[in-house]
Design a protein that fits this description.
The chain is of the alpha/beta class. The chain has 2 domains: 255 residues, Aldehyde Dehydrogenase, Chain A, domain 1; 191 residues, Aldehyde Dehydrogenase, Chain A, domain 2 (3-Layer(aba) Sandwich), CATH 3.40.309. The chain is 40% helix and 19% strand. It has a 7-stranded mixed sheet, sandwiched between helices. A 6-stranded mixed sheet has the order 6-5-4-7-8-18, sandwiched between helices. Strands 1-2 form a two-stranded antiparallel sheet. α2 packs antiparallel against α4. It is globular and about 75 Å long. The N and C termini lie far apart (59 Å). Belongs to the aldehyde dehydrogenase family.
């Protein structure tokens, strides 16, 4: 794929970039290693100062970078502004909490006395340069949620961003440079996916993190395993949205639409499979479909637009194939199911609700990356759990019930990295984020995510010390 900004609302190629050559990649690796040797010894106070400066700059740049994101991948402008604001908030969160999250741990001397130690300390030290392979759908947030904790821990970063968001990728490097970080502390690599393996095998790369497709995750995990390097993977999702009889149906339908179509439906943690108890199925389906039908599809720069274009022509084609396959095999399109006829240019697709899903349909097991929801009718809680877990993915889940016993059952049995009761899945810097099954492994955010790229070091002090 060419490294280029292509406006998905028009299909127009606006700017192209040359990929780095081998010598330029080597220069980046040298700078990253040199920067790490400096940055790892800085105090938390200095790291806090730098990250807060970056947050202030990002706030000042909010409208400009939001317009860049919308131009490159098509999300509605209001959502792009919200993404930039969330990134600045997360920077401030880590700047405030990092020192406490990575504070030395002191085991009780009585608990380790038989080790011969007078005392012992557990210390978190940075690993080195981390390679981040990031996707286009949240082009700023996906990077910052890795970069903020990694930099506060004393690591340095190299970013291989998706090839369709190069201007956003370059902005992130420049943001950290303007904030005062040492040269090479965080760098963007404009490279194709074919160059990733050699970089990952370089001994100056200590670890890797990837958010993206399952095939991409497998490739990075295979190389990292061969090199015995730490990885964190956040891959696909086909999150269930369970609606049980005690749910507030009006609120569930309203939030459910947002949960499905956020970011034009292109979110790994978007609710995709709506699993509804038969006692409330018809009432929920009517409310939900009505709200999906009422959404405005159009220019993502227009403040009144709810859904912009998909990020690429291929992405729309992939989504169309899933919908067409389902309809051909008996599913019913309660709304949508086609390209909007009024939008001849750009890669738009109508908000779509499909019912009558069966296991023969590809969409039953494959992730639909766009504004397409599937409805399932279930007889009871047992069937709801079975359908929710009948997927190779396990990123997050949503459950709408006010019954404490049902909540406890779902907390125990849903196979996912998160269960959100009576609300939609969302990420927050203070909460760990990640999945189960083929949605990946490891965690981002919170102290758990921050410590993924630290060397947990045991310090043992003998009796003579």
């Amino acid at each position: 794929m060419a490294i280029a900004t292509v406006n998905p609302a028009t299909g127009e190629t606006l700017k192209t970039f040359d990929a780095l050559n081998a010598g330029e990649i080597e220069d980046h690796l040298v700078r990253a290693e040199q920067a790490f040797q400096e940055h790892r010894t800085t105090t938390f106070a200095r790291r806090r100062e730098l990250l807060l400066a970056a947050a202030d700059l990002l706030d000042a740049d909010q409208d400009g970078i939001a317009r860049t994101m919308t131009t490159e991948m098509g999300k509605p402008l209001a959502q792009a502004r919200a993404e930039a604001a969330k990134c600045a908030k997360t920077m401030r969160w880590y700047a405030t909490h990092a020192e406490a999250l990575l504070a030395d741990e002191h085991p009780d001397p009585a608990d380790v006395s038989d080790s011969g130690a007078r005392r012992a300390v557990v210390r978190y030290r940075p690993l080195g340069t981390v390679l981040a392979v990031m996707p286009w759908n949240f082009p700023l947030w996906q990077v910052v949620r890795f970069a903020a904790p990694a930099l506060m821990a004393g690591n340095t970063g190299l970013l291989k961003h998706a090839s369709n968001v190069p201007q956003t990728a370059l902005y992130i490097e420049e943001l950290f440079r303007r904030a005062g970080y040492p040269e090479g502390c965080f760098q963007t690599l404009l490279i194709g996916s074919g160059a990733v393996e050699d970089i990952l095998r370089d001994p100056r790369i200590a670890a890797a993190t990837l958010t993206g497709s399952e095939p991409a995750g497998r490739a990075v995990a295979a190389v990292s395993g061969d090199e015995v390097k730490k990885t964190v993977l956040e891959l696909g999702g086909s999150d269930p949205f369970l609606v049980l009889p005690s749910a507030d149906l009006d609120k569930a339908a309203r939030v459910g639409v947002t949960a499905r179509v956020q970011n034009n439906g292109q979110s790994c943690i978007a609710a995709k499979r709506f699993i509804v108890h038969e006692d409330v199925y018809d009432a929920f389906a009517e409310r939900f479909t009505g709200r999906m039908t009422a959404l405005t599809v159009g220019d993502p720069m227009d403040e009144n637009t709810d859904i912009g274009p998909l990020s690429s022509e291929q992405g729309r084609s992939d989504l169309e194939e899933l919908v067409d396959d389902a309809v051909h095999k008996g599913a019913t399109a309660l709304c949508g199911g086609r390209r909007p006829p009024q939008h001849r240019a750009g890669w738009f697709y109508e908000p779509t609700v499909l019912s009558g899903i069966t296991s023969e349909m590809r969409i039953d097991q494959e992730e639909a990356f766009g504004p397409v929801a599937t409805l399932y009718r279930v007889a009871d809680l047992d069937e709801a759990v079975r359908v929710a877990n009948d997927t190779p993915f396990g990123l997050s889940s949503n459950a709408w019930t006010r019954d404490p016993d049902e909540q406890e059952r779902l907390a125990r049995d849903l196979q996912a990295g998160g269960v959100f009761f009576n609300g939609m899945t969302a990420s927050h810097p203070g909460l760990p984020f990640g999945g189960a099954k083929r949605s990946g492994y490891g965690r981002e955010l919170s102290g758990h995510g921050m410590r993924e790229f630290c060397n947990m070091t045991t310090l043992w002090y003998g009796p003579e010390d």
